[in-house]
Design brief:
There is one protein chain. With about 280 residues, the protein is an alpha/beta fold. The chain has nine helices and nine strands. It folds into two domains: about 100 residues, Rossmann fold, CATH 3.40.50.2300; about 150 residues, Muramoyl-pentapeptide Carboxypeptidase, domain 2 (2-Layer Sandwich), CATH 3.30.1380. Helices cover about 50% and strands about 15% of the residues. The strands form two sheets. It has a five-stranded parallel β-sheet with strand order 2-1-3-4-5, sandwiched between helices. Strands 6-7-9-8 form a four-stranded antiparallel β-sheet, with helices on one face. β3, α3 and β4 form a beta-alpha-beta unit.
Amino acid sequence: MTEETRPKILVVDDEPMNVDLLEAYLSIDYDVVTASSGEDAIEEVKTRKPDLILLDIMMPGMDGYEVSKRLKSDPDTQFIPIILVTALSEVSDRIKGSDAGSDEFLTKPVNKEELMSRVKALLRTKSLHDDLLTERDMLDMQNRIRSILTAMIPALLQPLPPEQKKVLIHQMTDMVEKIIVDIYPFDAVKLDRTSIGEICASVMNQLGGSFAVEETGDADVCTIKGTVCPWGAGEARRNPILCNLTRGIFARIAARAPDDLEVEVQTTIGNGDEACIFEIR
């Protein structure tokens, strides 16, 4: 398990000894962040976006029940698993925790094996849920972009004046960019050349193309190679202006990076080359 893919767990408890113990159990396999109050926990969830929360109930100010209730009522955080960890052990306490939206309940002192088992199971469930959401969002992106293409590409294939075609390309790029921004979590990834290139390739692949980032050994250049055109090889060769749509989409994605990145076209299927090659510099 690499540092980049390790799940993030938020431990919330007002007793430092309890936090230290849970952190010691979890830090071997997971990235652990902590909070000492319910109010701090709400803020940490917003900024750190944990994959799971271990939440004490008995805390001054906002208790664990209220934290759980607030997080589970927020569409942005409702699917983060919450394990209540507490010295309370009555059935009524468990029922109250369930009513507040918590997913599991552990009694102090925590048994390490039980803790790790519950954490692993809930993280597996969340991962499956996240995958389903990603697939749904990607399918939505495909359908929305294809509806744009279905409506506008026929016009591009007509013998229109070049300036009119440029206007259409610009309009299509604007609409596609809005959809991509809705789908891709740009704020959640490090936007360097490689990550931008991977997003560009992913967008083209979701539309039916075959694009991939190629290693070149040059840290200042990210090369994207496409061997299957998402607009259709026949249409692209008959109307190379469709390649401008690909470049326009890549340029809009690259503009989201903090650095001033530029997209350069090296070869395109639309111009008779065997593959489309774009470089992000």
